[in-house]
Amino acid sequence: MFGSASLEPTLPVFLRKQVWGRREREGECSLWVREMANKVLSEMGLPKSITNIFTARNLLTAKDVLSLTEFELMELLDVGFAEVTTAVAQVSEISSPPYQTALSLLEQCIQNEYLSGHLPTRLKGLDEVLCGGIPFGVLTELVGPAGIGKTQFCMKLSLLASLPTKFGGLEGRVIYVDVESKFSSRRMIEIGVSSFPDIFHMEGMAQEMAGRILVLQPSSLAEFTESLQQIKVSLLQHQVKLLVIDSMTAVVSGDTSLSVVFRSLAEFSRIPVVVTNQVRSQCSDEISQYAFQVQSRDDTIEESARFDSHLVPALGIHWSHAVTIRLVLEAKSGERFMKVAKSPISPPLVFPFNITSSGISLLTDVGVEMIGPQINAIQNQGHSDVINFLSERLP
Ligand SMILES: Nc1ncnc2c1ncn2[C@@H]1O[C@H](COP(=O)(O)OP(=O)(O)OP(=O)(O)O)[C@@H](O)[C@H]1O
Q1: Which single residue of 192, 282, 335, 382 could bond 310 by disulfide (Cβ 3.0 to 4.6 Å)?
Q2: What does the record give under GO molecular function (predicted)?
Q3: What ipTM was estimated for this complex?
């Protein structure tokens, strides 16, 4: 009576009902779920006879039909089981969004990568696992305790984005939002001179590159929000190839809506957007309580390990979802490590690194795969030793 409809490309009916039911209960009905649910039966091209039966029983939308079990429908419509299941299958299929195959997703992905690309970090192991470096069009987050090297990494990335293409850079402008006034042009030039001596010793090159990096230092959230408009215009009008926000924690604090703003900024401009995020103790809402600040020199290792195991990114779950790549920088037994904690294309890997006059460098290009809670944990053991050890050697 109702004709046959293939259920292959759609979710099984009972699962769809469960998903709808759960999402509605939790109040998180997404737009497409609502659109699907509200599809009107009379506009679905179903056989007139069926539409009439449904209409006579006041079943007007896909949701009205799919919210009832087959047995309830049989009772209500006074028709047989086979006819009901066929009708339900048909309504399900018509009201479902079109499906995509893994192949079509892969093709889209390749196309996007072709259109966008990557900013190579020149950290060989990291570039390999990220398929070329920091991806364009998405948010990349650097998270870690104070003094671990987030700003050092951002300054190196800024140099690489402004480096002429003939030397492997992007030859673009950089917008560096320096929220905590930590950006140091002197340090950036030092990194440039040590990393690319041939290039930086060319007449006027250091000035040219430094001139491409626009540093914004907003002093309040209001000023930052105002400068967002200016940033959007600059992204369009100038050859901006990198946007850095250091640190996002200081700007956003409780305002999670900005995660959406920055994600769409990255998508729309198709440039890499790098944000830094600090850590806080899980037991406290305070962001400022870092392990090395609260430990005295004669604290035991056990105490330090216990405290450090509770460090989490200061910006919560909304940020976790908004960022595509998360790199965790941490200290363990006085050594620094960089973890690829979140990536759609790489397994969770960890690399030891250090900071020298030429900025961040990996001690090995072969990352070690992590398992279990290690992936998301943020350690800060012996970090003060790392800082003190280095600062003794610095001029
Ligand atoms: N010239 C240099 N040579 C070697 N190491 C350096 C040099 N300059 C800075 N460092 C290292 O970089 C560290 C500071 O890193 P950075 O400022 O990137 O920290 P951060 O993670 O951004 O911290 P915060 O969260 O406080 O902003 C110092 O502790 C020092 O170890």
Answers
A1: 282
A2: ATP binding; ATP-dependent DNA damage sensor activity; double-stranded DNA binding; four-way junction DNA binding; single-stranded DNA binding
A3: 0.98
